[in-house]
Design goal:
The complex is a heterodimer of chains A (223) and B (300). Chain A is α/β, with parallel strands linked by helices and 223 residues long. Chain A contains eight helices and ten strands. Chain A has a domain at 1-79 and 193-223: Rossmann fold. In chain A, helix 7 packs parallel to helix 8. In chain B, helix 9 (217-248) packs antiparallel against helix 10 (275-297). Chain B has a four-stranded antiparallel beta sheet with strand order 2-3-1-4, covered by helices on one side. Chain B has two domains: 3-60 and 164-297, no CATH class; 65-158, Alpha-Beta Plaits (2-Layer Sandwich), CATH 3.30.70. Classes of the chains: A alpha/beta (223), B alpha+beta (300). Chain A binds chain B through residues 48-52, 70-71, 73-78, 82, 84, 88-93, 97, 101-102, 104-106, 147, 151, and chain B through 16, 19-20, 22, 205-206, 208-217, 219, 296-297, 300.
């Protein structure tokens, strides 16, 4: 699904990620952990081509990102559901419209019953007409999850998806991700919530990647 | 731009694509207002260009293919020299007709300056011979030399010294009118481009979200293209209507003299300004589309 070959990424100041080679196989479940500022969000952005590597190759759905046109990237993103750390909504559109945005831009109709079910699952049915700025942090995060999965993506990337959620909602979110993974979706969750990782490992064969010293390593039993 | 693209970007309303860009009051009014003001000015500039063209034709046409021979001679030689000049003119290739003006005609020519009771017989006025040229013009220089040799008091005036500068001035005016229209359209293009860029910059977050959920550039651009094109078109319709109304209210031909008599639109020329809103819409469409795609390429 997504492959890194000796990838490096540098901001102006210096190299943030270095010599990363890995493959997120179809149907796999990965956690990505590491201290704040280690490069988790940057790694995820490389996965959906918001950033391009400064060295090495990133391939999405077997195609090297540098060879993709802008329309190709747009099409690839329709197969990748992303839960952003800062949620990213269009503030003047109601929540329901924001959640169905991936379907709309892809020219696909959304069935009202599906939307109702999805909003009900994330506990936001009563807020379908609310505008994003009026939502709490947790509500926004749940809405972001709903938007990421509504299109039925092949890959789900989540950047600290439980950062603003209570433990109960975090468990429900994890259950959804596990369920989606069992349906064959590839899941990568960047988090520093070790409890969530431990809970997930009881439910699914999740691998844990850790960013340390600019490199991504497979974490061992020390988690 | 394919017709399909035009239909897709402009004519087909897309609910979300239209709503995805928040309405921005100031930019909306600026775009429509600027387009309207430019169209209003363009109506006048176009009128100037058309009027200058008519003026050039009128001045050229009125003086073209005609000439005058003026005979200044002592009273006792005047009739003889006039006869001699007419005889020369009758045998000059390129002269279709030549006739000496009678006293009444000369009096009427001088009436605006000296009044109706001019005692023409007591004044040493030259005799004027009006020449009508043939389709093939006569050789003015040859005729001038021949008259000099055989009719000492004759002076040929082929009007070229009046006609040329007037025609040149009218042509220059027409050129200025055309340049003014082009500059107005260029200014409109620049304004709409700037407004689009400002709107794109103000909506960077919206664009980023759309890109992240898989929107193609065409989808994002459509919202801006449609909105700015319709604003510019609407403004231009209002500006053109106001300009045409103002032109229609200019004093009628009989009440004013000089250059102003030809400044308004005449006959079918009233159809010309009707094309301005369409042109403004096309310019807005092209400018917005180019600006939107250029800006979107800067984003990942």
């Amino acid at each position: 699904m997504i492959a890194f070959e000796t990838v490096a990424y540098s901001y102006g100041g210096g190299e943030l990620l270095s010599d990363i080679s890995l493959r997120l196989a179809a149907g796999s479940f990965h956690f990505l952990t590491g201290p704040s500022g280690a490069g988790k969000s940057t790694f995820l952005k490389l996965c959906y081509a918001e950033l391009l590597p400064t060295a090495g190759r990133v391939s999405i759905f077997e195609r090297e990102v540098r060879s993709l046109t802008r329309d190709d990237i747009a099409r690839a993103r329709r197969r990748i559901g992303v839960v952003h750390q800062d949620c990213q909504f269009i503030d003047h559109l109601p929540l329901a419209t924001n959640v169905t945005l991936p379907l709309t831009v892809a020219g696909r109709a959304s069935r009202p019953s599906d939307l109702t079910d999805l909003l009900g699952w994330v506990g936001l049915s009563h807020l379908a007409d609310a505008l994003p700025p009026s939502l709490s942090g947790g509500e926004r995060q749940r809405a972001a999850v709903a938007r990421a999965v509504i299109v039925g993506p092949d890959v789900i990337l989540a950047d600290e998806p439980t950062g603003n959620l209570d433990w109960e909602m975090s468990q429900r979110l994890l259950s959804l991700l596990v369920e989606l993974n069992r349906m064959g979706k590839t899941v990568l969750v960047a988090t520093h919530d070790l409890n969530l990782i431990r809970l997930a490992k009881q439910q699914v064969a999740a691998r844990v990647l850790r960013i340390r010293n600019r490199r991504v390593q497979l974490a061992g039993a020390d988690l | 731009m394919s017709p399909g693209g035009l239909r897709g970007d402009l004519l087909k309303s897309d609910g979300l694509a239209d709503r995805v860009v928040p309405p921005s009051g100031a930019v909306a009014w600026l775009t429509a207002g600027t387009s309207g003001a430019m169209a209003f000015l363009a109506v006048f500039a176009l009128a100037l260009a058309l009027a200058s063209g008519r003026l050039a034709e009128r001045w050229s046409g009125a003086l073209d293919r005609s000439a005058t021979v003026r005979i200044s001679a002592p009273a006792d030689q005047l009739a003889g020299q006039t006869e001699a000049a007419l005889a020369i003119l009758a045998t000059t290739p390129g002269v279709a007709a030549a006739r000496a003006l009678v006293d009444d005609e000369q009096r009427r020519l001088l009436e605006p300056w000296f009044g109706p009771d001019l005692p023409l017989e007591s004044l040493p006025l030259p005799r004027l011979i009006e020449i009508t040229e043939d389709r093939v013009p006569f050789d003015a220089e040859g005729l001038r030399l021949r008259l000099e040799a055989e009719v000492p008091g004759a002076v040929l005036d082929d009007h070229s010294r009046w006609r040329r500068p007037l025609a040149v001035a009218a042509e220059r005016l027409r050129l200025l009118g055309v340049i003014a229209v082009l500059l107005i359209l260029a200014a409109m293009t620049a304004t709409i481009t700037l407004a689009t860029m400002a709107s794109l910059a103000a909506n960077a977050q919206v664009i980023r979200v759309l890109r992240l959920v898989g929107a193609r550039d065409a989808f994002i651009a459509r919202a801006f293209v449609r909105r700015f094109t319709l604003r510019a078109f609407g403004g231009a319709v209002a500006g053109t209507a106001a300009g045409m109304a103002a032109m229609a209210m200019l004093p009628p031909l009989a009440d004013a003299g000089g250059f102003l008599t030809g400044l308004g639109y005449q006959g079918l020329a009233w159809l010309w300004p009707l094309g301005l809103p369409l042109l403004a819409g096309m310019i807005a469409f092209a400018a917005t589309r180019a600006a939107a795609f250029a800006k979107l390429k800067e984003l990942t």
